[in-house]
Structure formats: C-alpha cells, structure tokens
Amino acid sequence: MQQPALKLAGVGVSRDGRAILDGVDWAVQADERWVVLGANGSGKSTLVQIAALALHPSRGEVDVLGERLGRTDVRSLRRRIGYAAAALADSLRPSITAVDVVITAKHAALEPWWHQYTDGDRADALDRLGRLGMASFAVRPFGTLSSGERQRVLTARTLMGEVGIVLLDEPNAGLDLGGREWLVQGLDQLAGDPSTPPMVLVTHHVEEIPPSFTHGLLLREGRVLAMGELATVVTGEHLSDAYGISLRVRREDGRFSAAALR
Question: I need a surface site. Which of 27, 95, 112, 225 has the fewest CB within 10 A?
Fold first, then answer.
C-alpha cells in the first residue's frame, strides 16, 4: 500500500498550559481531498500549520511525503508542500505580478530576484494560473486584483513545482458571494483532476466545500470529533455537537448547507 502523503500520530500542541490540539491521529492518502471543519479556536489552523511544517507540535509524530519531522531538512521539504494562508497575501509586494507570485513558489520565495528561473518555469507558472482560470491575469500586479482573484492566484501558487500535497487555510475568508463561488468552482475542478496532489481545505462553512472533495475532519476543542468520508462527517448530529447549536444539514447537487433548527 502506498504511504500516505500526510500522517499525524498522537499530535498535540500546548500553549500556556492549555491544549490547542490533543491526541490527533490523521492520515491523508494520495487520492484524497480533505476538508477540516470546526468552530473558532478548535485548532484547525494550528493543525494545517503543522502539516505545512510551519509549526512544530509539542508531542506526537508528523510524517509528510515520507519524511519524519525532526529527522529531515524542512527547508527542502517545504518546497514540495503547496501552502496558502491569509498571511501570505499580506506578505506580498502589491506590484509583484500574478505570474511572479506563482513562479516564486518553486523556491518557497516571495520575490523573483532571489533565484534564477527558466522559460520552462515561467511556462509552468502560466499553466498553474490557467488551471484556476487566471492565465489572462498573469502580468497584472497582485495588488490590483480583487480578493477572489488573489485567492485564485495563491491557489495556483500551491501547485508550482514538484508539489506532493496542497494545504489551503481558509481561502474563502473575506470573499463576497461571487468571489466565494468562483473559488469553490476552481477548487472543485482541481479536486476532480486525478493529476492534482492530495488536498486539505480548512474552512468554517460547509457551503464552501467543493463537491469533488472526498473526506472530512471535524475538530472540537483540539480533539477529533469525527473523521472519514465526507457524507459521514458532515451531518446535523456531528455539526451540532461541534458548534454547540442544533443544526440541520442538507446536501443538494453535491453542495452542503447548514441552518439552525427552529
């Protein structure tokens, strides 16, 4: 059996004597697309930061793309992890072009002048933009793009290079309805492409889960409440338990929705 792209065993994170994550066991296989759900403070972003090798756990074992955290050069391994979070957009120079945002991911950089890039690299970056419907925006300054367009560029960036897993931390945050739906559509197309690496999407809202995603991980107060195939995790019972309110969950045309019971 092929080894998982990501495996966590007994992972925990403590800060100031409080457990942010506790006893998390989780594996992401090569053909899976996961969504991570949970209330504010449940540990979602902390979990994905560990998977991205941006945070070291207080305890437990973390294996990413066959390498054990603590026994490998994380600087090299990070180049094989496509990771996007809100803080990344704030770190980018407004005048940098969309294609340069993508191409610099090859070396996990934020500026194009720190490394040399070939015509092949540029073609690869344009291809990644094209997969998100952003090829025509390649030479546009990043700072002139809408929030939805920026998120599509950042998602394209996660695919640059020899990426083995894609991690997206709340890419829909701050988007209006149109921007959200445009991004969900793009993520759905990526998830449905067998050549796309395994994906992990962190979100607050079940409405943002692309139809092609396959698995779900639901956190409550740093612990796993439910985990497995998406339909068995995103249920009214589980979400009510996670969010502390009675919820009804529906699924239509592959899309979930949730509302409080009256």
Answer: 95
Specify which residues 224 forms β-bridges with.
Answer: 219
Q: Which letter, b or e, does each residue of 152-174 get, where b requires 16 or more Cβ atoms within 10 Å of its Cβ?
A: bbbbbbbbbbebbbbbbbbbbbe
Task: Express each pLDDT in 39-93 by its tens digit.
Answer: 999 999 999 999 999 899 999 999 999 999 888 888 888 889 999 987 788 889 9
- Listed as ranges, residues in the chain with pLDDT below 70 are 1
pLDDT of amino acid 72: 81
Residue 6: Cβ-neighbour burial (10 angstroms; 0-12, 13-18, 19+): buried
Three-point CA angle 198, 240, 29, nearest 5°: 15
For residues 28 and 6, give the distance between their C-alpha atoms in angstroms, rounded to a whole number.
5
Residues 6+ apart with CB under 8 A from 45: 85, 169, 170, 202
Beta strand 67-68 with 59-64: parallel, antiparallel or unpaired?
Answer: antiparallel
Which residue ranges form the domains of the chain, and what is each CATH number?
A: 6-260 (3.40.50.300)
Q: What's the pLDDT at 1? A: 60
DSSP code, position 91 = H
Pairing of strands 6-15, 18-28: antiparallel
